[in-house]
Amino acid sequence: MNNKVRPSPENFFIDWKQREALAEGMIPVIGKLYREFNVSCYMYGKSMVNKSVTDLMKSHRFVRQVEKNMLSEFDTAPMLNAISQLRLGPAHIDIGKLVIKFQASNQRLSIEDFVSAELADCIRSTKKPLVKPQDVVLYGFGRIGRLLARLLIDKAGGGELLRLRVIVVRKGSKPNNDLEKRAALLRQDSVHGSFKGTIRVLNESDTMVVNGNPIQVIYANKPEDVDYSEYKINEPLIIDNTGIWTDRKNLERHLSTGAKKVLLTAPAGGDIPNIVYGVNHHQITAQQDVISAASCTTNAIVPVLKTLLDQYGIHHGHVETVHAYTNDQNLIDNYHPGDRRGRSAALNMVLTSTGAAKAVAKVIPELEGRLTGNAIRVPTPNVSMAILNLQLNQSVTRDGLNEFLRHMALHSEYQEQIGYTVSTEAVSTDFVGSRQATVVDSEATIVSGKNVVIY
Q1: Helices assigned H by DSSP within 68-130
Q2: How many Å apart are CA 312 and CA 93, to the nearest integer?
Q3: Which among 39, 296, 324, 371 is annotated as catalytic?
Q4: What is the pLDDT of residues 206-238, one digit of tens each?
Q5: What pTM was computed for the model?
Q6: How many Å apart are CA 53 and CA 30, to the nearest integer?
């Protein structure tokens, strides 16, 4: 018989209300650090900025699940308050990891002295990450462009880093209400939900004011039609999200308008570097004026493949992508120049090719010729699954492989790219809005000696 006293329901409720109050008190502190000092707070890689009380409490629960540590708001609130007393400069601070480190230190220092020592390099000085704020232009405003706009506005902070200044689009078929329609698509998204903020439309100046940030909308049919200096914008970063051009010759047309750099949100051809941030971003040099952010699948599989290659070695493998349908497919059966894509995207699984396997070699040259790939488009609008079927150079166990991937997701330099879930009930919609490039489904991992399957 277990004589241990079990907590009563009343005690659970009281504890929850106390933790809820602490999380509520964190919100203005996190907001002030972000707005005034460009300090972004995280909980094991999950952003704490602009989050609700429930979101903050869930982030604590995530740490308890994957780290098996009883971290709570009673621990993080004092740590956050101590951080807020310092005059910090632009920084990313992981509150959860600081608390765990403080607990492991046996608390030899006071929490204030511990924070001062740990964040000594972040103490605010006159030096900034950028000499001046970088103006950003979104060339195109489709699905990717609108999501980028949300992210850039969300990350405006104190305005010292990236500033979304301009959106360039072609005039719609009904020019009289073009701006209202584009604002409506930014305001409401069928997949990602409503925009958490305010949007005003100023038709007389072709401007959208989003969360107080004025964004000029310029109508143009080609890059050469735009003169950014007319809007007092010099050397902007152009993010081309149209998907129309993937070659250097056409993308360099943006540079003739006075742009400083061009970033393509699709895989690029020729000698344009395909960059998967966190893996080969060190290849970006000051001299490069056009780079590609590669594809969604490439960003999902490359961080995991890189960690496995470095730890175990990879002999060969196959990548199968179960991919959400895309805008180039037909809603109902109709002519399409691509094989199979003419059939209804909403009713069929459509077998097609993927360039992700070849794209991996551009980022990780050691894997050239070792991977094959295919894709199946399925009737879901968002979130795709990549299945890595690999033969490693050494035998592993399921628990050992999962523990390695868990460590990579929580404690390595790939933390911002790789996520990790232990849920036995996880499905695709659970990951809508995830800002990590990939999430490892640990419950689905299959291991047989050197052969592994990772979802």
Answers
A1: 73-84, 95-104, 111-118
A2: 31
A3: 296
A4: 999 999 999 999 999 999 999 999 999 989 999
A5: 0.88
A6: 12
> Position of tokens 């971003």?
281
| Whole-number Å distance between alpha carbons of 391 and 73 | 43
pLDDT band of residue 417 (cuts 50, 70, 90) is: very high
Distance between CA atoms of residues 87 and 353, nearest Å: 52
Q: What is the mean pLDDT of residues 374-396?
A: 96
Query: Tokens for 412?
Result: 């390595």
The tokens describing 85, both together, are: 């007393």
Give the pLDDT score at 192: 95
Residues 6+ apart with CB under 8 A from 310: none
Q: How far apart are CA 134 and CA 159, in angstroms?
A: 9
Nearest to 93 by CA among 102, 65, 66, 430: 102
Active site residue 296: yes
pLDDT at 112: 92
For residue 393, list its beta bridge partners.
none
- Domains (ranges, CATH) in the chain? 9-122 (no CATH), 134-266 (3.40.50.720), 296-454 (3.30.360.10)
Find the largest Cα–Cα distance for the chain. Answer: 81
Name which of 98-112, 248-262, 413-427 the model is least confident about: 98-112
